[in-house]
Each structure stands twice: as C-alpha cells, then as structure tokens.
Amino acid sequence: MRIIGIDPGLAIVGYGVLEYKAGRFTTLAYGSITTPAHTEIPDRLQSIYHQLDDLIKMYRPEDIAVEELFFHNNQKTVISVAEARGVILLCAKMNGLNIYEYTPLQVKQAVVGYGRAEKKQVISMVTSLLNLKEPPKPDDTADALAIAVCRAHSGGSQIEQYLKRMSR
Question: Which of 1, 151, 7 is nearest to 81 (CA)?
Fold first, then answer.
C-alpha cells in the first residue's frame, strides 16, 4: 500500500510518502509545503492545494492519512489550520484517495506504543522505523511520516486491501 501522511497547517504542511509491503517500509519522499506569512490566506490555501495535488500525481498514493485537528488556545490558529485541512481533504477527494484521519494520541500509540509519548520519542521511532540517516526536519515532516506509519499499522488485512482495490 502506498500512503501519503499529512500534518496540516497553514504556514507548514508536513508530508511523508511511504510504501508498505509485507511489513516493510520504503520511504519515497518527505518534506514540507510552506506558505509565506504575509500572503493572503486564499492564496496560501491555493498554494497548498496545488503543491499537494502535484505530490499526489507524482507518487500516486492509494491512501492519505491526515492528523485530526487538535484544539489549541489560539482560536485564530485553529481556524486557519482547519481551513488548510479542508483544502487538503478536498484535494485528496478530488484525486480519489482513501481518506483516513487520526488523532495525535492514535499516532503516538501506533508509532511509539504509548499515546502520551513526547515529540522527541516519536521522531526517534520514525527515524528508526524508516531507516532514515537523520531525523526528518521540520517537526511537521516527522509528524507526517508518523501519521503515514500509523495508517500502515492500521491498514487492515491483505484480503481487506485486495477487496478495496477490486471495488474501485
């Protein structure tokens, strides 16, 4: 199964593209989509959409795993992240991807084995699980890879995946 993991944001959208076969990971790409701070929000959202669309067309994932919105104290930040997340989900839908959403607790549980793990523990496990030479940067990218790993570990049986492909 090919998965793109997404850590949504307006300034930085982390992404990670993984292939998961027979219990083994192959890391195809990871990085971040960034938008300049002083750009109008509609322009930033359009940029996120187009850059994600390009990634999806390039790597052709079957699944997209997106982190669910985690409420912060700053309502303005929550709203802009929610808008970016909406654009990400729309792009995924327009490209026919299977969409999966995970809470930060679910991601940490799947990657570290403990839902209250610290960020450095998640980064360390992602680096180890994916055989990366160094920890991915920025943190949003590491989070996106962790989200993709979570999807892989939650992906269901081989027969379930086969039946899903056959029903398309």
Answer: 7
| Closest to 142 (Cα-Cα) out of 43, 17, 55, 14 | 14
The strands making up 98-102's β-sheet, listed across from edge to edge, are 24-34, 12-21, 2-7, 63-67, 98-102
7 is catalytic: yes
Our answer to whether residue 118 is catalytic in this structure is: no
**What value does the mean pLDDT take over residues 49-67?**
98
pLDDT tens track for 76-108:
678 899 999 999 999 999 999 999 999 999 999
For the cut 60, the answer to whether the pLDDT of residue 156 exceeds it is no
Which one of 19, 140, 143, 160 is the catalytic residue?
140
- Structure pTM? 0.90
Asked about 63 being catalytic, the answer comes back as no
Q: Look-up: residue for tokens 């309502």?
A: 75
Catalytic residue among 67, 101, 139, 160: 67
